[in-house]
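This is your field. Please look over both lines of this record.
***
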Amino acid sequence: MGEVYRARDLRLRRDVAVKVLPAVVSSDPERLRRFEQEATAAAALNHPNILAVHQLGMYAETPYLVSELLEGETLREQIRRGPVAPRRVIDYGVQVARGLSAAHEKGIVHRDLKPENLFLTKDGQVKILDFGLAKLTQPQPGSEPSALTIGGETEPGLVMGTVGYMSPEQVRGQATDSRADIFAFGAILYEMLTGKRAFQKPTSPETMSAILNEDPPEISQIVSNVLPALKRTVHRCLEKTPERRFQSTTDLTFALEALSDSGAIHSEVLGKRFGLSWNWIFCFDDSPGTGGSWRNLCLLTCDRKPLARSTAPLEQRGE
């Protein structure tokens, strides 16, 4: 929504991006509200994986938004060239999860996450764009208070989002929370790994029906070089009921970061060279005296027989 131009900030001597709403769009109150909402939501967030917004203004009755200038391409453009390497999927996934976690901690749900709204810079950084459909929910406990107010409550039965990436609760027009973003994120991870959309039918109604009633084809049926732990992470994001998904992007970030560490990535190399494999199992330890923490169980196997087993809190792992 809107036209983006490269511009020069003469006062601060830096290049910026200026997003302008065409007259035909700015005359629409709903689109104007979404434009302002995009700026308000993004400006409330200060995170390296979220587009930085500098200014929102009006010139000659034309609304504009000034943001940092990004050079690179959208994730959609990269996926058009085929599946993304699993190692890179994990890297991108960790960055997106961290950005979403920062938004969710402020009580902001994106609600329109898709490859077009993820930008890959030339230096390998991922930026989340377009909070035009963002919704303000209750900030998570312990997060800093914010004076941000975004729109109002979505009308019951109103479908918000992009077909193919909407969660089942969005398709039904039900109330949503951060777990709707987790579902969309799972669809994006699936598409990066396979080069195919998780839910895509000839028509929008059929696609929405698939989101509600069907599971996407198994990743292993399309590509063969994906770690089992990564496939499990994707499928958990895509659970139909919110209660069966990751309950927060913080938990999802932990799971992806564990895969990005040396243990999971290098297991593929070890497996090919020595016939060994590492299997990571994640669980939440709430036993007395632990204070509650995510832990992993590492099982080293050879020819499907256990050789060694270790367990430690994720934050204390030292591979």
In short: The chain has three domains: 3-68, 72-260, 264-316. Residues 259 and 265 are 6 Å apart (CA to CA). DSSP finds ten helices and twelve strands in the chain.
